[in-house]
Structures are given as C-alpha cells and as structure tokens.
Design brief:
This protein is α+β, with helices and mostly antiparallel strands and about 120 residues long. It has a four-stranded antiparallel β-sheet. The model has no long low-confidence stretch (mean pLDDT about 90). The chain is about 40% helix and about 10% strand.
Length: about 120
C-alpha cells in the first residue's frame, strides 16, 4: 500500500522552492509529519502564503515547532549561555508541516499537492 509520505514525496519532488528533510543513506525514514522547507528565492511564495492558501481551501497545515531555546521558559538561559542557533532559527521561519493523519485518503493528499502546485 502506498503511504502518505510516498505520495507527498513523489507529488512535490519537482516543485521549485520546496525542499525535503534530508535523509542520510544509513537511516530509515519513520514519518510522523511531512515537513517541507520553502525557499522563497526559488519559488513565487513564502511559507506564510502557502499556509494561507491551504487554509483558504480548508486544509490545515502548521509552521515548524518553535525552537526550545526561544521559548519563554528557556530563552533567558539560552541568552546567558550565548546560544547562537541561526540554522534552527532559519528553519523555524521557513519550515512547515503538511497535513497527515491516520485516515487521510490518497485523494486528500493529492488535493494538498494540487493546491501547492497552483501557487506557481
């Protein structure tokens, strides 16, 4: 049976500006979420525009989780330690998770892909 991960991977692989999480050769993917990063220099849209467009079509998506070092409970300690995490902060600004859930149908995944493709 084809998985949500496989459908998204195949359906989005050739869209400029959409980047997937890299997987090293020795690792096995264990998908829970389907994360993508939007490179707005290679596409005509930003993460916010894509999230908004999906929402207009009744499709929920969400930005990446807030990095722990920037949460109120940890922020001051992180600043005192002199933490500088530019890659983490950048990914938080441009990354998002596409919808996934147990009963998601192939048609629903393909609809998400269709909306994303319409943003060209």
């Amino acid at each position: 049976m084809i998985s949500i991960f496989e459908i998204y991977s195949e359906g989005l692989k050739d869209i400029p500006g959409i980047l997937f999480h890299p997987v090293v050769s020795w690792a096995e993917v264990s998908p829970w979420l389907f994360p993508i990063v939007i490179d707005s220099k290679k596409s005509n849209y930003t993460r916010e525009k894509l999230i908004q467009r999906l929402s207009e079509e009744g499709i929920e998506s969400r930005p990446f989780f807030t990095p722990v070092h920037s949460l109120p409970a940890f922020r001051e300690t992180s600043i005192c330690r002199g933490d500088r995490l530019p890659i983490t902060d950048h990914l938080c600004r441009v990354g998002m998770n596409l919808p996934t859930y147990n009963n998601m149908t192939i048609d629903e995944v393909e609809r998400v892909i269709e909306v994303i493709r319409s943003l060209k």
